[in-house]
Every structure is written in C-alpha cells, then in structure tokens.
Specification:
By secondary structure, the chain is mostly helical. It has a single domain (2-86), classed as 434 Repressor (Amino-terminal Domain), CATH 1.10.260. The chain is built from six helices and no strands.
C-alpha cells in the first residue's frame, strides 16, 4: 500500500474510501452524475459515500474497483480500514489475494 501512503502524505489526511472515490472522479474530471452512472448507483448515494455519510461493504468496494478498472485489493483494503476506524479500533488492515 505504498501508493496509499504517498497519497495520504500529499493530501495531508488519511485516505478514506469516500475520499478515494472523489479523488478518482475529480482526476478523471467527471461530475458525480457521470461517475455514479459508471458505478451503477444514484448520484445522491455517491455524494453520501464521498462525504462519509454512508459506508460501503467490502463486496460493493470490490464491485466499484472492477467497474472503474482499479485494484480490487486496494479498494477492499481501504473500505475495511474505514469500517475499523469508524469503530474506533486501533488496528490496521492488510489484505492479500486468496
């Protein structure tokens, strides 16, 4: 997860799943409406994820990775870390392919 650490250093904050999606969308210069169509979700749902009002399951994170062509391992790892952090647990997630 060297890439994640580099991104966090550049942004000055922990990379959450919502921030990851927002960064990808903005990097591709897409609106939420355009990106939500790619993901197969409503614009409001994407907005809620980006603003951390909603969290996704690891399965949904993997689906989003496939639809966008990004690493399933990284998406799931960041998703799981969000869930752990939200619960206030002082743990770090490491995901490997089976």
């Amino acid at each position: 997860m060297k890439t994640t650490k580099k991104l966090e250093k550049l942004m000055g904050e922990t990379l959450s799943f919502g921030l990851l999606l927002r960064s990808i969308r903005q990097g591709e210069e897409m609106t939420q409406a355009e990106f939500s169509k790619i993901l197969g979700v409503s614009t409001q749902y994407l907005c809620d994820i980006e603003n951390e009002r909603r969290f996704v399951s690891p399965k949904v994170a993997a689906t989003f990775a496939k639809k966008t062509g990004y690493s399933e391992k990284n998406f799931v790892s960041i998703c799981l870390q969000d869930l752990i952090d939200r619960e206030g647990l002082n743990l770090t997630i490491h995901v490997d392919a089976a």
